[in-house]
Design goal:
Elements: H1 3-8, E1 11-22, E2 25-36, E3 40-44, H2 51-58, E4 66-71, H3 79-86, E5 89-92, H4 104-115, H5 120-130, H6 146-158, E6 164-168, H7 176-189, E7 194-199, H8 202-208, E8 211-216, E9 219-225, H9 226-230, H10 235-242
Parallel strand pairs: 3-7, 3-8, 5-6, 6-7
Antiparallel strand pairs: 1-2, 1-4, 8-9
Length: about 250
């Protein structure tokens, strides 16, 4: 998909003045943004900025205190629409929901049956190749490295070939080689899917993203292209400015 098609395509993910309040603590305050079809968008912010809360609201795991979310024009807070959305959305939380006593083969077969996917073996073969987990398919998940566990979680999220992927810190805790492999996979998936991934790593934005949504202290502080984020100041200096921290000199 070309840049023009990304910029003018239909809105796939929409947050409209989303707020989430716990007692006197506001985790999110009227956060609004859009992600258009065929875009890889980085949801950027320091730890505790409100990224995971936003993603849980978008995927229906949390209800907002106020505001509204839409994915593919479906409301994740409505039970009937959330079921339909589950058929079109792949979600990888930061700590993926893995059955650690199963093998990847057993886990993927379980989800094939749970989702009632026709041609289950074809789906499993596809995600096994996409996520490069063939050599560990028959090892218990609890014996796998974090990198492989992350890949198995990604395979589960991709099993039903969703139109939209939401990935929460997909490279967190991985070594440099594993990070490169996951980024390569995301770039390839971004050719055919709309992807929103959260990160606190600036290099992730440059390596993967078409657009950037940035939050700080539960508030939106930037939305635009990665070129607009950096401007002439350099990524690190711009990041410090948007998070209200003192700008640091970049060598």
């Amino acid at each position: 998909m070309t840049q023009t098609e990304r910029e003018t395509g239909p809105v796939t993910i929409k947050a409209d003045k989303i707020s989430k309040v716990y007692g006197e603590f506001a985790a999110l305050h009227e956060v609004s943004f859009e992600v258009r079809r065929g875009t890889v968008a980085a949801f950027l912010g320091v730890n505790g900025a409100g990224k995971s809360t936003t993603m849980r609201i978008l995927t229906g795991y949390l209800a907002p205190t106020s505001g509204a979310a839409r994915i593919l024009d479906l409301d994740p807070t409505r039970h009937d629409q959330r079921i339909e959305l589950a058929r079109k959305l792949g979600y990888l939380p930061e700590s993926g929901p893995l059955y650690r006593d199963m093998t990847p083969a057993e886990s993927l077969q379980f989800f094939v049956e749970l989702r009632k996917l026709a041609g289950g073996k074809q789906h499993i073969d596809r995600v096994t190749e996409q996520c490069a987990i063939g050599q560990v398919m028959h090892k218990p998940i609890h014996k796998l490295s974090k990198g492989y566990r992350q890949r198995v979680g990604m395979a589960q999220a991709l099993l039903h070939d969703p139109e939209v992927l939401i990935l929460d810190e997909p490279t967190s805790g991985l070594d440099p080689l594993q990070i490169r492999e996951v980024r390569t996979l995301i770039r390839e998936l971004g050719k055919t899917k709309t992807i929103l991934l959260s990160t606190h790593i600036l290099q992730e934005v440059d390596a993967i993203a078409d657009r950037v949504v940035m939050v700080h202290d539960g508030r939106l502080v930037f939305t635009g292209t990665r070129e607009e984020l950096v401007k002439d100041e350099g990524a690190e200096k711009r990041f410090y400015e948007l998070t209200g921290q003192r700008a640091k000199e970049v060598a």
